[in-house]
Design goal:
There is one protein chain. The chain is α+β, with helices and mostly antiparallel strands. It has 3 domains: 117 residues, Orthogonal Bundle (Helix Hairpins), CATH 1.10.287; 64 residues, Urease metallochaperone UreE, N-terminal domain (HSP40/DNAj peptide-binding domain), CATH 2.60.260.20; 89 residues, Urease metallochaperone UreE, N-terminal domain (HSP40/DNAj peptide-binding domain), CATH 2.60.260.20. 25% of the residues lie in helices and 21% in strands. It is built from 9 helices and 13 strands. The chain has a 4-stranded mixed sheet. Strand 1 and strand 2 form a beta hairpin. Helix 3 packs antiparallel against helix 4 and helix 3 packs across helix 6. The chain is elongated, with a radius of gyration of 37 Å.
Length: 319
C-alpha cells in the first residue's frame, strides 16, 4: 500500500483518520492503532511504513498539544508545526502577528509520548538528549536495522521426515545446530531460526530453512499415509504366511491371510507420517503375487487344474 505522506503532513486530522472535532481520547485511540500497525520494529525494511509511522507521530504530537492544535485550527501553523506565514513576524519560539493584526503565542516544546508508548510496546522510546520522545516538528530517526536473513536448503531422508528425526545443520557462521523437524513436514516446508542470520546494529537476522524430502526407493507418501507395493510368493498367497514388511521405523512381522489376491491392501496402524493435528498416519501395504518364471512343476500343475468354484476374474469389466 502506498501512502502520500506530504498530504498527510498537511492535515494531521487526515493523517490520524479523525474528524476535526475529535476528542482527546479519540485522537489517542487513532494514534495507538496506527502506531501498532506501522511501528518500524514490526515493519523491518519497509520505508513506507516508517514514513507512515513518523507522519502519525508528528500528527499526534501536534493534536495532543492544545495550543498547537488551536494554532493549526486557526491556520497559524501547518501540519508540521511550522508557521503558516513565515514572513509575518514569527520568531523561534516567541510571538507573531497573525491575520488581522492579532497577537498569537506559540511554543516549540515537543510533547512527551513516553506514557503512550509505555502501553504500546512495553517501554518508552526516548531520544538521547533531553529524555523526551520527539521534539516539535521532528521526524524520529529509524531504529537500527537488523542483520540480513540467511537462506538454507536442507534435504531430509524420507524416513527422517516421517519420524521427525533431528537434523544436524551447519550454519554459515560455522555454528552447528540440531534442528527439530515439525509434524507434517514436507517438501516446501519453511522453518525460521530466530537470531541465526547475519549480525546487524539492531540485532541478528534469522536463518530461513527450506526443506526438501527425498524420494524413496519403494515407499510412497499419500498425505500422512505411506504406501508400499509388496511382492509375495504364490505359496504365501495361497497358504497364508507370516512375513517381514519394511516400515520407516524398521521391519515388522505381518500376517498374510490365506488365498490373498494381488491388490489386497493390509493396513499397518501408526506407521505413517506424524500429523500436524497429532498422532500418525498409517502404512498401506498392497500385495502383489510374484509368479516364478519357467517353473515346470507349476506349469504341469495348472495344465489340468480347474478351480473348485468356477470364476471369471474379469467379470467387473463386463467381458
Amino acid at each position: 500500500m502506498i501512502y502520500d505522506t506530504e498530504t498527510m503532513a498537511a492535515d494531521p486530522y487526515a493523517t490520524l483518520g479523525v474528524a476535526r472535532g475529535a476528542s482527546e481520547d479519540e485522537i489517542k485511540k487513532a494514534y495507538r492503532k496506527l502506531a501498532k500497525e506501522f511501528h518500524p520494529d514490526r515493519n523491518t525494511g519497509n520505508p513506507q511504513a516508517a514514513e507512515r509511522f513518523s507522519a502519525a507521530t508528528n500528527a499526534y504530537d501536534l493534536l495532543s498539544d492544545k495550543n498547537k492544535r488551536a494554532q493549526f485550527d486557526r491556520g497559524e501553523i501547518d501540519g508540521e508545526g511550522n508557521p503558516a506565514h513565515p514572513f509575518g513576524g514569527f520568531g523561534g519560539g516567541g510571538s507573531s502577528r497573525g491575520p488581522g493584526g492579532m497577537h498569537h503565542e506559540y511554543s516549540t516544546d515537543g510533547g512527551d509520548l513516553g506514557d503512550l508508548f509505555e502501553g504500546l510496546f512495553g517501554g518508552a522510546r526516548r531520544s538521547g538528549g533531553g529524555g523526551s520522545f520527539g521534539g516539535f516538528g521532528q521526524r524520529r530517526p529509524p531504529p537500527p536495522q537488523k542483520g540480513g536473513d540467511v537462506a538454507y536448503k536442507l534435504a531430509v531422508s524420507f524416513e527422517d521426515a516421517a519420524t521427525l528425526a533431528t537434523q544436524r545443520l551447519t550454519l554459515a557462521s560455522g555454528k552447528t545446530i540440531d534442528l527439530k523437524l515439525k509434524p507434517g513436514v514436507e517438501t516446501g516446508t519453511q522453518m525460521r531460526l530466530s537470531g541465526q542470520g547475519q549480525a546487524g546494529p539492531g540485532g541478528n537476522g534469522d536463518a530461513l530453512i527450506s526443506i526438501t524430502v527425498k524420494a524413496h526407493g519403494f515407499f510412497e507418501r499419500d498425505g500422512d499415509d505411506i504406501r508400499l507395493d509388496l511382492p509375495i510368493g504364490l505359496d504365501e498367497a495361497v497358504k497364508g504366511a507370516k512375513i517381514k514388511v519394511p516400515t520407516v521405523d524398521g521391519a515388522v512381522m505381518v500376517t498374510v491371510p490365506r488365498n490373498a489376491a494381488s491388490g489386497k491392501v493390509l493396513r499397518l496402524k501408526g506407521k505413517g507420517f506424524r500429523k500436524k493435528s497429532g498422532g500418525r498416519g498409517d502404512q498401506l501395504v498392497r500385495l502383489e503375487i510374484d509368479l516364478p518364471e519357467d517353473d515346470a512343476a507349476l506349469a504341469e500343475f495348472v495344465k489340468d487344474w480347474t478351480p473348485g468354484t468356477p470364476q471369471n476374474p474379469r467379470s467387473k469389466f463386463d467381458v
